[in-house]
From TrEMBL:
SMART domains: LytTR (SM00850)
Span of domain HTH LytTR-type: 1-72
GO MF annotation list: DNA binding; phosphorelay response regulator activity
Name used for this protein in its record: HTH LytTR-type domain-containing protein
PROSITE patterns reported in the protein's UniProt record: HTH_LYTTR (PS50930)
Pfam families reported for this sequence: LytTR
Domain of life: Bacteria
InterPro entries: LytR-like, LytTR_DNA-bd_dom
Length: 121
C-alpha cells in the first residue's frame, strides 16, 4: 500500500497493516512497529480492501488476522465527566495482535467480530 506522509511516498506492505483509525481529519495506519498518518477515508479503504479488513467501529478498520480477542471493556475514549470518568459504562473492544492496544467495537459490529474470530480457529 502506498501512502504519502509528510511529503514522502512510503510503501507499507498490506500484510503488515494491523488497523486504520480515523482521528480528526486524518487516518492512522498502524503496523506492529510503526504508526503512519495519511489522508483518506475509512469508507474508501473498506471498499478497496474487501474481506481482509473488518469495520469494528465508525472510526476503525481492523485486519481480520490481527484481531486476537473480544472483551467487555470500560471505554477510555468516550465522553467523560469533569472527573475524567465515563461512568463505568461497559462497551466492547478488540485486542490487536503484536501491539498491546484495544480498539472500541460498536454494538452493531460485535456479531461480525465474533464471526471473524470464529473463522480464525
Amino acid at each position: 500500500m502506498n501512502i504519502t506522509e509528510r511529503g514522502r511516498l512510503l510503501r507499507v506492505p498490506l500484510a503488515e497493516v494491523l488497523y486504520f483509525k480515523a482521528e480528526l481529519k486524518y487516518l492512522t495506519l498502524r503496523t506492529a512497529t510503526q504508526s503512519h498518518v495519511m489522508d483518506g477515508s475509512l469508507s474508501e479503504l473498506e471498499q478497496r480492501l474487501g474481506d481482509r479488513f473488518l469495520r469494528v467501529h465508525r472510526n476503525a478498520l481492523v485486519a481480520k488476522a490481527a484481531v486476537r480477542e473480544l472483551e467487555r471493556h470500560v471505554p477510555t475514549d468516550g465522553p467523560a465527566d469533569a472527573d475524567g470518568d465515563n461512568g463505568g459504562e461497559l462497551g466492547w473492544a478488540v485486542r490487536i495482535a503484536h501491539v498491546n492496544e484495544w480498539l472500541a467495537v460498536s454494538r452493531r459490529q460485535v456479531a461480525a467480530v465474533r464471526e471473524a474470530l470464529a473463522g480464525q480457529r
